[in-house]
Amino acid sequence: xxxxxxxxPPIARQAPTERTFHGDTVVDExxxxxxxxxxxxxxxxxxxxxxxxxxxxHLAGLRETVFQEIKGRTQETDLSVPSxxxxxxxxxxxEEGKQYGIHxxxxxxxxxxxxxxxxxxxGEEVLLxxxxxxxxxxxxxxxxxDVSPDGKWLAFSTDFAGDERFTxxxxxxxxxxxxxxxxxxxxxxxxxxxxxGTLFYITVDDAWRPNRVWRHTVGTTENxxxxxxxxxxxxxxxxxxxxxxxxxIDTQSKITSEVRVIPADDPAVEPTLITERVxxxxxxxxxxxxxxxxxxxxxxxxxxxxxxxxDNPGEWIEMIPHQPGTRLESVDAFSRHLVxxxxxxxxxxxxxITDGSTAAYDMDFPExxxxxxxxxxPEYETSSVRIAYTSLVTPDSVYDVDLNTxxxxxxxxxxxxxxxxxxxxxxxxxxxxxxxxxxxxxxIVARKGVKRDGTAPALIYGYGSYEHSIDPYxxxxxxxxxxxxxxxxIAHVRGGGEMGRxxxxxxxxxxxxxxxxxxxxxxxxxxxxxxxSAERLVARGGSAGGLLMGAxxxxxxxxxxxxxxxxxxxxxxxSILDPSLPLTVTEWEExxxxxxxxxxxxxMKSYSPYENVTKQAYPKILAVTSLNDTRVLYHExxxxxxxxRSVAPDGTYxxxxxxxxxxxxxxxxxxxxxxxxxxxxxxxDVLKAA
Length: 690
Fold this sequence. Notes:
This protein has twelve helices and 38 strands. Among the domains are: 17-72 and 425-687, Rossmann fold; 127-281, Prolyl oligopeptidase, N-terminal domain (Methylamine Dehydrogenase, Chain H, 7 Propeller), CATH 2.130.10. The strands form eight sheets. An eight-stranded mixed sheet has the order 31-32-34-33-35-36-37-38, with helices on both faces. β33 (458-461), α4 and β34 form a beta-alpha-beta unit. Helix content is 18%, strand content 34%.
């Protein structure tokens, strides 16, 4: 139906469909691609894959080389740092040649206080082997992996399609038996009662919104609905506090929160409301002794910390007042300490407070650019916490920190084989100036010796939505770029959370275009400061960052040689106008509601990549998507590429669809490396750096 020849790519048929809102009629000639079950849709996607393979056939050798570089730098048989919970050390290990992790535990030996790091561990129990579960499957993902407080039961859920609809099961860790208990179409997350006899889980509605919390009695078919959220803007979550005293039901929209709790030792009682929702007020709780700690933004844009009584939740008593410019992101409670995760001046940080004291200290870190956060820490009765640390040049590192002495012990740094030396690379923080005068931070890494004369190839990455921050991070795969002289940059654009809540507010709703113009300003700053030139610059982004990629191709096509758009949200107005689609209603507080507001409709239409394709010279484009993605539906990039070919036919546009995967792409680690090698080979080719 869509023949692929040496003469050119497949050309999708046009079947004009009209859409009218607020008196505005739009003709969508490729709306038919939204029919996933139509054989013509699948035929086009398969033809696009065939064309992409043909158009990149000359890169087969480079793809294999890059794949072998990633594989060769990775310690394939490896082990996570074991975390202690009760009488066991829990860890995940990988084995050479196997796609998935193996989840294990060993008993804590008498007098043992440090995690056992030897590869052979006597008494090892394999709790779950992802390779066995995935055998014969094209895709595999875990949704929950949750051991009961007494260590006797494991709740786990699996997805074999990539659509993030999981099947929940329970395993007896004493006998190894997987019970007959089975629940289909569950969401991420679960929580155990104190005695391990009751399991709480979540299901979704037809729009893929997690909206119901259920109580399951282990060993039976009994499933009782205990909470349902009717407001379509809100998601629900469920968790067990670190203290194991309370089940927490967390209800959130993009800008509003509400929390309920159930005593973990009395799981059949009705949930207790902490504070009823108030539009625009976000809060979360953490149990700590006689109190619930409350992190909130009530009259506190960058959030503050308060507490209320466990016995009678009500008044919020201030603990840490709001400090503009210091964004409090979370609080973790331990029996004698609190650890606050925060963000200031574009960098993450950790603050420690000793219980019963107002004194606090911030952990210090040596590099100018880095990312740090708590890692795991299931134990409540402890004076030591585990943190994860990384930078653009420092591989992922795990430290144990003594909260009393402040001493830090390195437990493990991710091995990078092949003689990696961080001293061979440099990282920099630079700033771009946006059109409105706002200074936008850029994180940069390059191999030492790269000339700043405008001749170096460069890759710039961006996201800029949901207050999600893209902090400096290490990547083994990225070394295949850096060692070929490519400069890598992250543009910390508005819409993310890098510079506090205001940074997010200035990049959403009717200020969304700041995200796009910030990114263009960052690209222009790289050129102006002689890191690269527009002819040797590729941009990369995924999901909402794919929207960013689509927008910049329309507003600044001359600023880039190529665009790599992964699962890109490039037809946002069509999707956000359809409340029956997954996520649409919950997204209205991020983008606005174009159904009700003509102003929002017009604004979204003015930046939608699909709506604004024009006959102009576009950079080379590679769009990568997945057929079973429930977050950004496959047809958005499929329609986008089809319209680009129709309206601006002189460009080079490629579409690659994973026919058996979801939002995150291939699930196995070797398959993921091959996918990344494909992407990087294309980038290197566009940059003429192969």
